[in-house]
Amino acid sequence: MTPIYLDHAATTPIAPEVLVRFRGLLEESVANSSSSHQEGTRALALLNQARESVARKLGCESNEVVFTSGGTEGSNWILQRVLQDAAKVMASRGSKPHLITSSIEHSSVANVAEWLKNSGVCEWTEVRAEADGTVGLSSIEDALRPNTVMVAVMHGNNEIGTIQDVQAIGRFCRSKDVLFFADACQTFCHTDFLVRDLSVDFMSFSGHKIRAPKGVGAVYVRKGLELTPFMFGGKQERGLRPGTTTVELICAFAAATELWDQTIVARLNNIRQYAVDQLKKNFTGLRINGRETGPSLCHVLSFTLESHHSKFLHRELSLLNVACSTGAACGTGKSDSSAVLLGLGRTEKDAHQIRISFSPSTELATIDAFIDRLGKAVKLLENRTTQ
Predict the structure, then answer these.
(1) Is the pTM higher than 0.90?
(2) Side-chain half-sphere of 333: how many Cα atoms within 13 Å?
(3) Does the domain at residues 16-257 carry the CATH identifier 3.40.640.10?
(4) pLDDT recorded at residue 331
(5) Which of 5, 187, 275, 328 has the highest Cβ tally under 10 A?
(6) Is residue 298 annotated as a catalytic residue, yes or no?
(7) Delimiting residues of CATH 3.40.640.10 domain(s) in the chain
(8) Domain 4-13+261-386's class?
(9) For 309-355, what is each residue's pLDDT tens digit?
């Protein structure tokens, strides 16, 4: 049975053009970009070109981009250093910094926030998202305290696809002199935005979500802000992120960003809508999680069939050679329930889902084949319950 891969939000295959670029650099044996000889100077030039390319895509200055190993490192770095540095300053006043996050953050944000709170570094408030995944500005405003240092709300949710109005949240935070961090690992390249138009202070990005290799990403640090290093060592990345720079990975990341444009995003939006229409046409008791229409990620679609638990549907789909998910690949695995759906106020019984996600390689025929196999999975489960 031909494999169907619809788990691109977990990781997406490297684009052929990016693979050519990456392989070529590996075969060239690119030198250390910190070395002072000619080959090192050439490696540094490649690194600078890549940084300029990513900055151009983001709509920021090149010195506002720092390369990392991916989204989890970026989120950890931003949250830990901002809150820990603030805690040192505020301790002399007998106070602690306060952090606000939403109830549907990625585990690389939620688990760090919990750890910071349990370690006594900060106070933490988690505001509940609305039923469609929207994080209301009023809920952030209600949670604000005099000692609030940072608000962290992800730009686009990795499970249900809801895109937040980060511009409005950012403007509010800036008016209150509060730092604003948005995890943009799923929105980067999948949504048309420029950071210069958003009142964000920090963002994190991941290469393997946009058809680049695993192991590379970046953070945006707004000019004028200080972010202390997460690790200590050499002077790479202006001393902010020491360690021998992986020029090959970074160049592949930059090459991937150049492949995305509004035409591709529009096509993915059409595929998502086609999937919604076919699901509604072929299945009863269907619930779209997140927004069916409105600002949503072009490549993510979450749904629940009320008659069958998604855990069992997913098992049957896997046996039918369909790669999809029941939530984030980085989830805790502690239960069958989705942390995001629980964060929307669902009960443990109802907090389950099938998530399908797309890439530029996805065709309408892929969706048709998925719908067919989903129907087979449903029938297999129905037959078992009647036996």
Answers:
(1) yes
(2) 2
(3) yes
(4) 56
(5) 187
(6) no
(7) 16-257
(8) alpha beta
(9) 999 999 999 999 999 999 766 654 555 789 999 999 999 888 999 99
